[in-house]
Amino acid sequence: MEAMNVDVVVVGGGAMGSAAAWQLARTGKSVVLLERFEEGHHAGASHGATRNFNTAYAESDYLDLLAESRTLWDELSDESGTQLLDLVGLANHGNAARLRTVREAHRERGIESHFISAAEAGERWQGMNFRGDVLFVPGSGRVRAAEALRALRAAAEARGARFEYSTPVRSIRVLGPDSVLVATDHSEFTARRVVVTAGAWTDKVLDGLAALPPLVVTQEQPAHFTPLDGSLEWPSFNHNPDPDDPRDAYWYSPVYGMMTPGEGIKAGWHGVGPVTDPDARTFQPEPRQLEALVRYAREWLPGVDPSSAVPISCTYTTTPNEDFVLDAFGPLVVGAGFSGHGFKFTPAIGRVLADIADGGVAAPRFSASR
Fold it and tell me: Considering the entire predicted model, what is its pTM?
């Protein structure tokens, strides 16, 4: 069995683990990343071509991460020579009170956003219907998620990081305050720090080594819908149900969506899929939720064919309040519970995890003991 000493082992090679490896390697540390599945697998939460880059937050901790993420996405784009953001803007509608809170936070931060009427929004984005005012954020849009994963790996490896796919971690043993033994089927790694970013497998990988808040794993089932007119402009969008409007009673949750070039208009419920074991998933849509999503498309997305739904399957790993966990437990650093809204923050979360591995701390919101 191969034995190796390194500064840091990263367990989990999705977006967050790849970003942590990149940021750790940038500081000159020796890094090995271990991922149980093959590169580009569809078993977790990081696959797929696009994610929303959504700056419609009111909370200062998230706005801080967003500002840093935008800078780091641009740095990664420059390093890789690949465009990673499509800033087509993001249209937020429904639940006007929440949108006013977001707009006030943007005003205080100097983030560009503005309200437009439903009539103006409908004229501009003819593939969508609107009932009330729309908060438009022009500096938002899409992350090219699949290309981002490739760019993160290339940038990390260019600085000496080693990525090993199809390499499940069999055990993690804490030997001391600066020593952890990580075993796979063919190798043992002794590291000063271990960063665990294992998504839906976090609890299984840690096996009681860290006191985390409850992490609920769900199988989520958005879908792509075929556009009827390829010339229409599509922003990314978030649509909240109006709490006092009975017409929205069939909704399972807010809806998010975006154009995925070559695949269609993606739309999905947020965080309401069936609870699942990530090793025993069906990958099949829940019929009633899919039926409701098709109804949503019929009522709110006149620019798509609602009968064309092609379901997608992914996992969410969600904390009770949907805040992330970014914390240390001795020599173990854990990034978990990204709750279906983490991808946009990926490079900044990588930086935070690298800082924690070096003795830093995240904002109190992200503490495991909050």
Answer: 0.96
